[in-house]
Amino acid sequence: FCTHFTDQEELWTSAEIASASDHDKAIRFRRLLREEGIIQALGNRWFVSFALTDADVEETVARATAALQRL
Question: Is the CB of residue 57 less than 8 Å from the CB of residue 63?
């Protein structure tokens, strides 16, 4: 899945997402994620694996939450 920041309530196409997204905020979020030990792929992509344990997922969510709170 991908993460985008916008003040729009609904976006339906890739073009709408690209034009309405706050790219500077996304860059700041990626930087904060790195400080929390999370590497997010380019294009705001997240990859989920069945190799992750419940504890891995919980820790990632907690660290991403911390980054969002600092945003």
Answer: no
SS3 state at 21: coil
* Tokens (6 digits) for 63: 């660290």
DSSP bridge pairs for 45: 2, 41
Encode burial over 4-30: b for 16+ CB neighbours within 10 A, e otherwise: beeeeeeeeeeeeeeeebeeeebeebb
- Residue that wins the pLDDT comparison between 48 and 62: 62
**Neighbouring residues of 34: CB distance < 8 A, sequence distance ≥ 6:** 40
pTM here? Answer: 0.81
Per-residue pLDDT of 26-38, as tens digits, reads: 999 999 999 999 9
Asked if residues 46 and 3 have their Cβ atoms less than 8 Å apart, the reply is yes
